[in-house]
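Today's session is about reading a structure prediction critically. Students often jump straight to the picture, but the first step is always the sequence itself: look for stretches that repeat, for charged clusters, for runs of hydrophobic residues. Only then move on to the predicted structure, which in these notes is written as discrete structure tokens rather than atom positions. Here is the chain we will use throughout the hour.
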Amino acid sequence: MAKFDRKKHREEFLEKSKQEVFVDKYADFQGTKSELLLLKFGDFILEKRKEFLIGLAIILSITISFIGFKEFKYFRIKSATEEIEKLDKKVSKNFNLTTGNKIQEFEALLNNTSIKDGKLRIYKKLADLHVQAFEMNKAAEYLEKSGELLYEPKELKAYYFYIAGNYREQNKEIPKAIDNFTKATNFVGNNREVQSLTAWSYYQSGRLKLANGNSEGAIKDLNKVIDIESENPDIVEVKKLATFLLLKSNKG
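Below is the predicted structure for this chain, in token form.
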């Protein structure tokens, strides 16, 4: 068998390539540039039809899956909302149920709810019921869970922690109250739309720190209240309270 001559084969291939003449099949096309572009695109699709169909199938599959997921999520939210409203009507119409009974009913529903929106609504309902039962620590616990579960808006997260801080203070849980007020300030940041919440959160944190021996931390928080620039009557009032505590801390 003759030995394969790699060099000769390469030379023949190059010679053949030189002899080939490129033919532009669109050279005699008389239409517009847009029509030519569409023609070329159509030819490209015909040439690559297998790859094109596979790509199209993948895009359709992803689109259908995405739509299906959104529909399923909407269905779950709707179902959870209907269950909560159904239970809410049931317990509100039954005057023989105590607040404790109502709490048990909603806790049972909570155990069977996995979707975030449903949990948030039940947490809020349970917090209100525990306030009615004068169980401030439990009410605070559910508001804290709401704040942790909720991602946006930050202002609502801050509000949950602020109210939870008040409940913790009422239950004599001062370190937890301060922690909640601090979280509230962190979430609102420098948002000018909720300056009143910011001012009160810093004030409450500073007030509790001062009352519990943390003068340095208290002065820092109270000064942040003073630094807020606003003519809002509510903020003006809390700034007066902060100023009084700062004067008190200096005298102490």
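Discussion point for the tutorial: The mean pLDDT is 82.
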